[in-house]
Amino acid sequence: MHLVAIGGSDAGISAALRARELDPSVDVTVIAADAFPNFSICGIPYYFSREVQPWQTLAHRTAAELEATGMALRLETFVTAIDPERRTLTVEAGGVSDDVSYDELVVGVGASPARAGISGLDTLGPADGVHVLHSMGDTFALERDLDERRPRTAIIIGAGYVGLEMAEALTVRGLAVTQLQRGPEVLSTFDPQLGAIVHEELVDHGVRVETGVRVASLVRESAGIVVIANREGNEVRFTADIVLVVVGVAPNTALLSAIGVPVGPGGATVVDPTMRTGIPHVWAAGDGVVTHHRLLGETYLPLGTTAHKQGRVAGENAIGGTATFAGSVGTQVVKVFDVVAARTGLRDQDAATAGFSPRTAASSADDHKRYYPGATTIDFRVTGDERDGRLLGAQLVGRRSAEVSKRVDTFATAIHHRMTVAEMSALDLSYTPPLGSPWDAVQMASQAWERGVR
Amino acid sequence: MHLVAIGGSDAGISAALRARELDPSVDVTVIAADAFPNFSICGIPYYFSREVQPWQTLAHRTAAELEATGMALRLETFVTAIDPERRTLTVEAGGVSDDVSYDELVVGVGASPARAGISGLDTLGPADGVHVLHSMGDTFALERDLDERRPRTAIIIGAGYVGLEMAEALTVRGLAVTQLQRGPEVLSTFDPQLGAIVHEELVDHGVRVETGVRVASLVRESAGIVVIANREGNEVRFTADIVLVVVGVAPNTALLSAIGVPVGPGGATVVDPTMRTGIPHVWAAGDGVVTHHRLLGETYLPLGTTAHKQGRVAGENAIGGTATFAGSVGTQVVKVFDVVAARTGLRDQDAATAGFSPRTAASSADDHKRYYPGATTIDFRVTGDERDGRLLGAQLVGRRSAEVSKRVDTFATAIHHRMTVAEMSALDLSYTPPLGSPWDAVQMASQAWERGVR
Fold it and tell me: Domain named FAD/NAD(P)-binding: which ranges (chains A, B) (predicted)?
C-alpha cells in the first residue's frame, strides 16, 4: 500500500504520521510545495519578536525526524493534477514533470492569505514593503525587509489572532505599529466588551489601534506605503514604512475541484466527517476543507488544532480505519502582551443565526482566592440557550498568570458533551487557594449566567 | 419556613446561601460551634507562610456579609441534640442551654483531626508544642506558639496536602522542618513515581523528608518533643521544638448517629445523593458524610469542593428542590514550593479494587511549544481500563507555570462524562504556542496510554 499525502503542514504530516504509527508496513510519501515541512506556522510571530531563534526551531519535527518515522518526503514539489482513474498525480519539481502513483491519497493543501479585495496587493510585494504572512517564505521575506531596510513604522491590516501577535512582535522589535481593524473592536471573534480589554493592552504597550477602518487600497509613495481606507464614509490615509496584511485565509481547492469535489461553506472542499471526498481513494483534511462543528454542523473554521485532528482521521481511514472527526467546538486562544483571550463555542449572534435562543451573561471572577498574592480577575461572557439551559459558548479574558487557556478547555469539554450551564457546577474541578477557588472561576461564571438568565 | 444549618464551614454556609438565593422568603439560621464562620481552612498554611495577612482575610465572607444575605448566625453555639419528632435542637452557648426549632435541618458538622493511634496526643497539646491543624482555634494556638516560644525546629507528621503545605510554610518562616511519612513516598494519593518529584522539591528547599516511618508516640523531654516511631522494624526517634500532626480527618457523626442515621464508608454519615439522611426533614452534607463518587459509588473523601457542592444540594432540596449531587471524581491539587501536583479519578490499585482492569502509562509532555521560552515538562500518569479503553484517572506533576491545575480539570470533566482515553484526542482544546501545543499535553499523555496499552 502506498499512501501519498499532499501538503507538508499539519494535515498532511498528521495523516502520514498516523498511518505509519498504526501500520509501519504502509509506504508513505509526503509531497510538499515548499522546503519546510511540519513548521509551526502559529509560531512565526515569536520568531519576529526574537523569542524564538533560530527559525529552524519553529519546526514541530525536522525533515530528518519525519524521515526517521519511515515516511518519504518530496519537498519543493508541486502537484498540478490528480488522475483518480489511474490513481496518479502529476508533479513538478525543478521544472521537471513527473508522475507519482498512489493507492490512497490525502490532500492537505491548506489555505492561502486572503486579500479582502484590497487593491494594490496584486502589484505590491515584499520588495515594496508590503507583506502577507502565511508561510516560511513569507517569513523570510519580511525578516529580510526588517533587516535590510530597517523600517521604523508598520501598519498591520487586521486585528485577528495573527494580527495581534504581530503587533506585539513588531512593537517588541522597536517598530511603531498602527493596527487597522475593519470592525468596531479588535479580535472580532470575541464580543467587543472583551475585545476592548485586549485593545487597552495594545494601547498600553504603545500600539496605535484604529477601528472601523475599511481598507480599499495600498499605494507606494515616497513617504512609504499609503493605506487608503474608509471610515464612516470618509477617506482616511495611513502611511508607514511597511504594511502587513493579515486578514484571514481562503481555502486552496483547485486540485480537488478539478476532479469534481464540490466546495461548501467558506468555499472549502466538502468532506464527510471521515475525511472522505467522495472520489474513491481520495481523502482531504486541514485548512482547505470544511469543518464539522458540534453546534453548527458544516462550517469553515481553519485552525491548526483542527487540521491535526482531521489529518489524523484521514491517515487512519486511508489505510482502512474507521475514525471519525468528532467535531470542532470553535476553541481558540491568543496571548497579546500579558493578556490572554480564549473562547469556545458560539457567541450570541452566531448562536441565534444557528437557530438557538442564546442569552449571554457577563461576569468576572478571581483566578484564585483573593487572599493569596497575585490574584487577578478573569472577565467572562457565558452564552447559554434560555430554553433548555444548554451551554453554547464561553469567552474569557485575563492576565497570563490566570490559566485562562486551560480554563476554556473545561468549557470546551463541557460543550463537547452538551452540558447545560447549570451542570457546570457539578464538575469536580481542582482547588487549592494559590490556583483556584472552591467553585472554580468557570463555575462562578456559569452560576452568574444562571442567576442572570434562568 | 425556618431552615437551620448546623456548621459554619463550607457545607452549612453553602446550604444556607443556596436556600436564600433560591427563596429569599425562607428564614435561615446557621449555628456554628466556633466564632469563625465561612473561613477558608485550605488557606491556613498561607497564613503561616505570611503570604496571607491578617488572618481575617482568610474568610470567604465575613459574618457581616453572611448576615447581609439575610441569614441569622448563632456563633460559639454547640448543638448537643436533635429531636426529629418535635423538630427542635438543644443548643448550648455560654453555659446556657436553649431550644431551637426548625422546619428543615441541614447538618454540616464536618470532621475532626485524626490521631492515627499515636499515643501522647491525648495528653500533649499546644502548651507543649504539639499541634493539630483543623480550625481557626488550632491556627491561633500554633501561631501563638511560634510567636512566643520561637521554635527553631519542627516535625510534621504526615505528608498529605496540608502536611506538605505546612512544610513549605514553616520552612518559609525559617524553621528547620522534618517531614515524617508512613508510606514509601510523600503524597500517598499519587503514585510514588510522581510523589518523588514533590519529595525532591521539598529536599531542594531544605526540608528533611523521612519516609517509611510509622509514628507510635510522642513524649515531651527537655530537648523538645520526641517522636518515637518504627521504621522497618527498628525504633527511630526524632526530636524538635514543635510537632504538627496532620494525618487526615475523621468524620463527626455523633449528632446524627444519636437519632439513628447509620454510618458507612470511612465511618461517615450515610446520605443519599440528594443529601437526605432518611430522618424526615434532616439533611446532611460535607466532611461528616459519605461521598458519592462517579467511579467508586459510595466512599469517603472529605474535600472542601465536595462540601460546597453537597451543601448547595442540601440547601436547595431542604426548601423543596430536586437537586442531586452529581458525584465526585476525586480531583485534588496541591502546590508545594514551585511544583504543582494534581490528580483526578482512580489510580491503578484503587481501580483494580473497584473491579476495573486498569493499566497506567507514564509519559511526559511540554506545557507549551518547546521553542517558546519557559517551556517545562509535565509528568503524567494516565490510567485507563484495558478492556474498553475507559479513562479512569490521571495524575500530573509540573512546575507552577505549567497550568497543571486547570489541565487536570479537562481529565476530570472527561471522567465525569465516561470518556475513553482515545476520545481525549477528539476534544477541541485551546492552542497557542506560549501556552500549549496543537495536541495539548493532556492529549499527548492520552495518546501515550493508547500506544503503550491498547
Answer: 2-311
Number of domains making up chain A? 3
Quick one: how far is CA A70 from the chain centroid? 29
Q: How far apart are CA B116 and CA B243, in angstroms?
A: 15
Tracing cell 450551564 back to the chain, one arrives at A421
Whether the pLDDT of residue B454 is over 80: the answer is: no
Contacts of A254 (CB under 8 A, 6+ apart): none
- A304 → closest Cβ in B306, B403, B438: B438
What is the C-alpha radius of gyration for chain A, rounded to an integer number of angstroms? 23
| Mutate: best of A409, A416, A442, partner B, most B CBs <10 A | A409
User: A340 in contact with B at a CB cutoff of 8 Å?
Assistant: yes
The Cα A183–Cα A192 span in angstroms is: 9
Closest-approach residue (CA) in chain A for B429: A409
Sign of CA dihedral B298, B304, B306, B310: positive
For residue B434, the chain A residues in CB contact (below 8 A) are 46, 335
Distance to chain A for B412, nearest Cα, Å:
6
* Assigned domain for B333 exists: no
pLDDT at A453: 86
Q: Do A417 and B412 touch (CB under 8 A)?
A: no
Q: Name the maximum alpha-carbon separation found in chain A.
A: 70
8-state DSSP, A411: H
Q: Are B24 and B62 within one domain?
A: yes
**Rounded average pLDDT over A196-211:** 98
**Looking at beta carbons, which residues of chain B come within 8 Å of A414?**
413
| Model confidence pLDDT, tens digit, residues B165-204 | 999 999 999 999 999 999 999 999 999 999 999 999 999 9
> Is the residue at A121 inside a domain?
no
DSSP H helical ranges for B69-125 = none
For residue A279, is it within any domain?
A: yes
CA distance A115 to A130: 12
User: Closest Cα of chain B to A317: distance in Å?
Assistant: 15
Q: Which domain holds residue A219?
A: 126-245
Do the chains contact at A372 and B326, CB–CB below 8 Å?
no
A327 CB within 8 Å of a chain B CB: yes
Q: pLDDT tens digits, residue range A261-308?
A: 999 999 999 999 999 999 999 999 999 999 999 999 999 999 999 999
Residue of chain A with shortest Cα separation from B424: A413
Give φ, ψ of B378 to 5 degrees.
-100, 130
Q: Which residues sit opposite A289 in a β-bridge?
A: A269
pLDDT digits over B28-45, tens only?
Answer: 999 999 999 999 999 999
